Automatic annotation (TrEMBL):
Residues 117-126 have a biased composition (Low complexity). Belongs to the class-I fumarase family. It comes from Methanolobus vulcani. This is Fumarase, class I alpha subunit. Residues 108-127 are annotated as: Disordered. The keyword Lyase applies. GO terms for molecular function: 4 iron, 4 sulfur cluster binding; lyase activity; metal ion binding.
Length: 279
């Protein structure tokens, strides 16, 4: 018999992982930034990376957000088929977001797309964006991944013809080059290949959750190509334009080749919690 999961536990857990995501950068990202700083030969680039690392340290120590743009809030939920609860999980996540907005605090970023009216609590129609996946077991894993607008606005998608697979590399490079310093590099680049128009975008975004120090040969080659652009930290030139590239793929229609590029700033923020499980 699995342990039941109660409403208040989920609410508190959501507040906790949002605080962690906003104030403490994952260790693999910090290590990658430290490595980049040690390898930079440009004084300006090194100075920018050192400023980023100092900012990260202050945020973690003082438990304050590492960036003034605390992002639009995205959650990935791995829902165990045998998990027990007597409430709507979405309701608990929304309540956690409202509480976190007040307590951390988070900048209210959720607005109506046309009127620009701000809800004031980071919730609204379709926001936070919650993505569910059914998995085996009786536990629930919730991952919070705040996404700032500076990097999100530089992301792109393209519907290529099946014969244009050799154009994927150029599309990724063009997207990063056009972004320049706007997404606050060094960036992490998520690439989604295949699926449908929306599936490719989902793949690209979820790819950002992968560890920055674990890349395939294909991803490493593309990372080297991106860094050869010379955009550098904060767009001021240097060796490090990106910390990592992660590619996710899905089968697609025989007549299409969707490709999406989701760019993340240096603050590749995310945190997770596992609730429930067997007694």
């Amino acid at each position: 018999m699995s342990n039941p999961i109660d409403y208040d536990t989920v609410v508190s857990a959501v507040v906790d992982i949002l605080e962690e995501a906003e104030t403490v950068l994952p260790k693999d990202v910090v290590v990658a930034l430290e490595k980049a700083a040690s390898q930079e030969s440009s004084p300006v680039a090194k100075e920018q990376l050192e400023a980023i690392l100092k900012n990260i340290g202050i945020a973690a120590k003082k438990k304050v957000p590492m960036c003034q743009d605390t992002g639009i809030l995205i959650f990935y939920v791995e829902l165990g088929r045998d998990a027990r609860m007597d409430f709507r999980l979405e309701d608990a996540i929304l309540e956690g977001v409202k509480k976190a907005t007040r307590s951390i605090p988070l900048r209210p970023n959720a607005v109506d797309p046309l009127t620009r009216s701000n809800s004031g609590n980071n919730t609204g129609n379709g926001i936070p964006d919650i993505k569910y996946e059914l998995v085996d077991g009786s536990s629930i894993k919730i991952t919070a991944a705040p996404k700032g607008a500076g990097s999100e606005n530089m992301s792109a998608i393209k519907m290529l013809n099946p014969t244009e697979k050799d154009s994927i590399r150029n599309f990724v490079l063009e997207t990063v080059l056009n972004a320049g310093g706007k997404p606050c590099p060094p960036v992490v680049v998520g690439v989604g290949i295949g699926g449908s128009f929306d599936k490719a975008a989902r793949l690209a975004k979820s790819a950002l959750l992968e560890k920055v120090d674990e890349m395939s040969e294909e991803e490493t080659v593309l990372l080297d190509d991106i860094n050869s652009l010379g955009i550098g930290p904060m767009g001021l030139g240097g060796k490090t334009t990106a910390l990592a590239v992660h590619i996710k793929k899905a089968h697609c229609h025989t007549a299409s080749l969707p490709v999406a590029v989701n760019i993340q700033c240096w603050a590749n923020r995310h945190a997770s919690v596992v609730l429930g499980g067997d007694e």
